[in-house]
What we know:
The complex is a heterodimer.
Chain A lengths: L7 H28 L1 H24 L4 H25 L1 H7 L6 E2 L8 E2 L4 H8 L6 H20 L8 H19 L11 H18 L7 H18 L9 H22 L37 H11 L12 H4 L46 H10 L8 H9 L2 H10 L6 H13 L7 H6 L8 H11 L26 E3 L20 H4 L7 E3 L21 H9 L24 H12 L5
Antiparallel strand pairs in A: 1-2, 3-4
Chain B lengths: L1 H10 L35 E3 L7 E7 L16 E8 L5 E7 L4 E7 L5 E8 L1 H4 L2 E9 L1 H4 L4 E9 L5 E4 L22 E6 L9 E7 L9 E6 L9 E7 L15 E8 L4 H10 L8 E6 L7 E6 L14 E7 L6 E9 L13 E6 L3 E6 L15 E6 L5 E7 L4 H5 L13 E7 L1 H4 L4 E12 L18 E9 L4
Antiparallel strand pairs in B: 1-22, 2-25, 3-4, 4-5, 5-6, 7-8, 8-9, 10-11, 11-12, 12-13, 13-14, 14-18, 15-16, 16-17, 17-18, 19-20, 20-21, 21-22, 23-24, 24-25
Amino acid sequence: MSYLIIKKEVIIYGFFFLLLISCKKEKQAKFEQTTNYTHVLNTLYKKQLNNCIEVTKKLNKTTEKDSLLYLFKKARIAFKSTEPLMSFFNEATYKNLNRPNLPIVDEDDNAKKVLKPTGFQVLEEEISAEKLNLTEINKHCNNIINTLKLEANNHAIRKLKKHHVLWMIKDSYLRIMALGISGFDSPILQNSLPENKAVINTIQTILVHFKKEFKTESIYTKQLALLENSAKKLINTGFNSFNRYAFIKENINPLVNLINKTTIDWNVSFPFDRKLSNSATSFFNETTFNVHQFSPNYGKVTDSIIKLGEKLFHESKLSKSGKMNCANCHQPKNAFTDGLQFSIANDGSFVKRNSPTLLYSGLQAAQFHDARAASLETQIVGVVENDKEFHNNFEEIINTLTKDSTYVKRFNTAYKKGITSVNIRHAIASYIRTLSKFNSKFDENISSRKNNLTTDEISGFNLFMGKAKCATCHFAPTFNGTVPPSYTESELEVLGIPETIAWKNATINDDLGRYDVFEVDKKKHAFKTPTVRNITNTAPYMHNGVYHNLKEVIKFYNLGGGTGIGINLENQTLPTDKLNLTENEIDQLIAFLGTLSDT
Amino acid sequence: MKKSIKLAALAISALTISCNSDDDLNVIVDNTTQVELKNHSVTPHLLTAHPGYENLKIYSLLSSEDTLPESPNFVYGSMADGCGLLNNSDGTYTLINNIEADYSIARITLDKTFKPVKGEYILNSVATGNTAQCSGSLITPQEHGFGPLYLSGGEWGGNSRNVFATNPFKEAATASTARTLPAMGQWTIENAVPLHKDAYQGKTIVLIGDDSHGEAGGQLVMYKSDTVGDLENGELYALKMVNSNIKDNDLVDGGEFDVEFTQLSETTYDALNTECVSKNVMAFNRVEDIDYRKDGDYREIYFNATGRTAYNDTRTKYGRVYRLTLDENDPLKGKLRVELNGDDLVGKAKTFHSPDNILVTKNYAYIQEDPNGYDDDANKEHDAYLYQYNLNTKELKVVLESAQRTPAAVDGGYASYSDRWGKWELTGMIDISENVGIDGTFLLIQQGHSWKNDAFLNPDGVGAPEDSSNEGSILTVIQGLER
């Protein structure tokens, strides 16, 4: 054992030294607290999480219906307050707490797991039930509390940079618009408006923390004022009567524009771009999305590639017979469809499904009605190799194109490796991705570039986003089923589509859809949610083209889908309740849908 | 004097790591081991040895239907997966085992003869928020220069996408609290495998497999800290081809390709994926398990891409095994080659069907399958195989297969003939030769995906039964395999 002998003088000097250090440390700590944004946001986040835990604990102890409902709403508000931070910094946790009350089907591996959902939406259904099942309620409360505790004890917010703040806020606006105000995550109580006010309040709090980053004060004050106005609009309004059109036009889009201004004001440079463009100034512009980011990393896209792709799109040499090309079934003049129930195969017979539009098709995470192709590039392989379609292979195609000197020249100009399978598909896909113009009458109006929507058209949009629940599957602004803000997943739904038009005792159409891909029972009759943009020009409707016009389509939904017409699928995911839309409301919906045609 | 040396030898925790290296340099193999390898479970092992391996000794140690004397209420739960074995100073053994489908981690005590006698849950589904703990890796002072600590991959279920870190000796009473390692990033985490301390002295490096197949693919990720034992302040990197035009399918024709690990600055799941795409990080179809060769240098890494029917124009469908050789001085540089290609339907790996876990010893790699069920090639329509790959001669052999479609399994009520081939999964293989003092001894786990019994529900005793699984697991020990 050795001893450390300390001289008296050293002790005294040491003491003062320590005092000095601790003083400095305190000052430094204060400094860090005001400018260490990671710490600031973690503190806010933890506070919000703990608040939600506390309210959920109270809810868990309650047994009486009215108190349950009251505390549930309170817990939901507490949860929604965490939404901007949680959904950005730990999306998995957010999803776990806020998923739809549908079985979670994992087609991914051998085990083929089907898990029961948990979280607030499931709890909402339990608490709204006629007969309360307290065991179930306690179970879900406990799951929620455990998930929140795990999150609170492990800091998800790390290495925060300014660009994260801007991404987070912009994503939050998109989530409010596309998933929040449509009632997507509060299907029963439809308490979405006060809940989204809580989201707005958190964004306000966050912005206030970043006040000193603003060089131009008006950009800061304008945002706060607009957020305050947004919060006001969200209270004291009924779910059905809320004017979502005005809210997006006057609040959301301008807020997006202000984020863009903030980017410039803070002098932020983003390390890379995302699908939702870093420089978007509204959610309804051609520049809202980086369409080419929806592609796997095949390489840069140039104008010459896009033009080459357009040429190939019309090139019949791609088919074995030399008689078929993409434009046969996807006719540019017909909104890139062919107006038929089923497209015509290369032998004159019919193919299995209806030809979907290619407009906005690039803004998806999967292709084909059963989502079996992960990208446009792999979708093209499916068409080329399909016996009833191009009935060809890429080796043949390369041989054929190589004999044409124009193609050789154009490919060699556009691509290092010239004519290859990858490059052929990349060119065509790149062209298809440009078919997302966002220049319809609706886009022009909601982005305040024009002002000529009729009141019926506006009411129709508000119905689409509200009472008619269309937007809970067809998410604004793409109006397809690819989930914002990350756009990495395209949803499939089981609607219960009939074989022929019948309004009772209908027979289910025998196309099993997604089931044929992985043979998972829950996915029988599941099909990808397509866009409704340009819908006035893409009849007939559904994967089997069963409906001729939009009145028939809306009647199907109004009745509660398959269940409403006598088809009782165990796994229907479309809510089975009737929508109770009046004739006038249906007309308004159709009027709105008519404004979604590209010009 | 002899006794104390024996005890001292045993007291040096010869720690074997799940899907990872054994400690073959410091522990004396004890010739007077008390271990008796035999069947301790009431469940038969349901594995059939293939030709050439008939002399293997295979025993079933523990299954979901067993009762252990010192913990009568303990149930060995569903989808047992990654594991690690420790030698205790009193001559007994501790097995840390992920119980994947019950979202928890169990600790099983085996006596000096290697008979399981006690089980308890040290991390439960409350702690993990119902997140599945998939593969696992044991960190030890001998192997890694710090620890002991057990890492597991949060792969599916609740708050998934994080690496979990658990103290193997924590009190079971604290099973309801979990710790994650956010510095390792948010991924679909299969496993987090720390490299041997001698691979790069003075550093802690952890390789992470991302088990996804989307547009950014599954990435091979590296966490690196210049402080041994630091799991919080290091940096993240991901593997990319130096020539980023090279895709997964371009690797199969042979040859070695230059790779580097490019630094990542994002921390969240989607942002990391987008960053990887923007930096041309290599996209595999589902990187699952990783292990390194126990050759003294420890820089020869093997990993599996399980495969998927997506992006097959550039990535594998049936699965591949890759070899990554890291540079002697710079862990961020290396060379990559395909060792075994399941997409070559006439090549040596033509029977490959979703290789999942991998264990690498000094001379062999042991590959365990989890068949996805693609029924478009006769060579692939078989039950899960355990392969032995000779790293020197490059010969690939099938050691054994899961035998759930045999009379022993069906008559015992464990499975039925109508089960799809390939339904049961092989996983969790670790080399325990050094631990038990018997050369060529391994643990291997079977996930009985069609062996269902409600008695197996909710073994961790918390949460709701319907949030747990009723599938059975079988832990086996195999002796006689080469290292």
